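Retro notes, item 3 of 5
We never archived the inputs for the pyridoxal-5'-phosphate complex last cycle. Fixing that now. Sequence and ligand:
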Amino acid sequence: MIKFKTTLATQSRFDSINFNDLRFGIYFSDHIYVSDYINGAWTEGEIKPYGPFEIEPAMCTLHYGQALFEGLKAFRSVKGGVNLFRPYKNAERLNKSAERICIPPFDIERLIEAMKELCRIDYKFIPTKRGNALYIRPVAFGTGNFLGVHESDTYRLIIITSPVASYYPEGLNPVRIMVSDTYTRAAKGGTGSAKVAGNYAASLLATKKARELGYSQVLWLDAISHQFVDEVGAMNIMFVIDDELITPSLENGTILPGVTRDSVLTIAREWGMKVIERAISIEEVISAHSQGKLNEVFGTGTAAVISPVGVLGYKGKDYIINDNKIGTYAQKFYDAITGIQYGELEDTHGWILHIEV
Ligand SMILES: Cc1ncc(COP(=O)(O)O)c(C=O)c1O
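Structure as it came back at the time:
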């Protein structure tokens, strides 16, 4: 087992946290993991108290955005201890994102061990309430100080953790999503399939405008024809048309290969559902709606797990889906995945990494 140098916090942030109103990403636990890439290698890294660190005004990431991140959750298992959900998937995706923006790969076992150690040390920050969890956020970024568009030769990887409730204040209640037919998020050959900071900066204006119109997030269409559905701001998207589960395929490289997406598709296939990963146009979605065949639309992602879409706004018109109610499939997938996460249902896929505390 890798043992990290550890400096424990002398003052805890615990008492400042309102566990009855956690919301998402506003509280942070006591400790972080930090590793630096210097002289051509990542250091073993250490665990230290959460707190600010100094950066120089010329730090390249501020200027050129050479940064990536990940997001996964730790749950209190009903059997005791802590469950991480498919952490190897996130670790592998972190290295794929790293490759895309020229950050050197990180040792996967070390990353997993650092997450486990943070969960052990900050165990009390893992919420006890069903539906809440400890969100784990690894981030890696260039730390070189220079002007000029080229990769850095030094980097930092940190892991912070945050006790969270569901991403959307709506929880499992349906959200309103606006289809953007002007702004786009990712084009073929770009960075859409990587979890890099710039993708999210590029999404902010459209999302802000959508929020001003009363929607939670944007549904992105492809960058060329503005016809085909890609994904939502922080979720993949799925449609139940008749009894088929349809979701955009990963082959264009414009959407994030979501861990929740993969989990839902796996479970759906096991349930005998017809699952199709293919291009789906917004016109096809609207036409299925008008024929009464669009039974459900929902987003999938770590933060919200499953988020039913109750209203789809497109070209100034609102399309109400499933009477703006939680769909049967959305509920079933939510129950199946969270059941595994909290240790209530058998983990037949080996998705849980259990941590004894
Ligand atoms: C753009 C985007 N798409 C999809 C997802 C869902 O991915 P996952 O299920 O791995 O959380 C996320 C969240 O990580 C995201 O940021």
